[in-house]
UniProtKB/TrEMBL annotation:
Principal location: membrane
Places the protein is found: Membrane
Keyword Nuclease on entry: no
Family, per entry: Belongs to the EamA transporter family.
UniProt-recorded name of the protein: EamA family transporter
Source organism per UniProt: Chryseobacterium edaphi
Membrane topology reported for the UniProt record: Multi-pass membrane protein
Amino acid sequence: MKTTDFKNKWLVPVAFANIYIIWGITFLAISFGLTGFPPFILSGFRFFAAGILLIGYLTAKGERANSLKNWWKNAVTGILILTGGTGLVAWGEQYVTASEAAIAIATGPFWFIAIDKKNWSYYFSDKFIPIGLLLGFAGLILFLNGSVNTHTANVDSSLRIIAFIVLALSSVAWVLGSLYSKKNPADHSTFMNISQQLIVAGLASFLVALFRNEWAGFSITAVPVSAWLGLLFLIFFGSIIAYISYIWLLSVKPAAIVSTHTYINPIVTVIAGFIIANQTINGNQLYGLLIILIGVLLTNVTKYFKLSKRSKAKIRKAVRHFNRISRPYQPM
């Protein structure tokens, strides 16, 4: 086995753990950030700060980003995935809980399969993938049905409905951006591409905040400590560590497989909410989470436990040998 193969084999589960766990906690971090920042100002600070930190580090190492073509490609990806996908989540969490938001955008894998026609033959050639996705969706329905936070104080029901629609649109924007990134990769290093995506997404978020009049009446000195802590988590963990892991996974794994983080994120969000914010969970939620986990396992099982032809031949030979020696003795 080559050293690079071993390295990638080790990096893949670590990267999946990053997007599964960190992005689950991110939904809760957004709710903390919203206690002091309007949604698109929060997103703007989050993305722009992370992008400046990354590009500053890369520039200090001697890397240059002077290709307008690459800036354009990364701008499209950043605006779709970050400003559209994540920024709309921040807006939606004004009217729904963190757990509800995580569940609402968990339709990501289905949008990936519906839009990514080029890989339809691959997705449906492995029977475990559609079965796992459908099972995961059933678990999400049960999970949503058992949600303990079915209402939010002082929020009109029509606004909550609009918020869920916007969250669904954010999932579509995320998928479109992810597929664009996979099919139109920029020529820079992965880190440089991500830094450009973050910077453009941050500027776009600030522009949206301007059109939404979020800057009027906003005072940075009035932001509570909890909101600053939420923002710091979003910058360093959500927008650097997890986002780098996500973009890298898109380059080495099928998009629909990478998108299974949307199944795990609600689980992590509920657990984090229970520990940090004293939110409770009930039996239906637990059953839903179990079904989701089984669905994700089925979706990924052939990728992590794929056997070579030689190994399959050895197994078949061992099975035939076991069948022979286990047959009852029959006298002539």
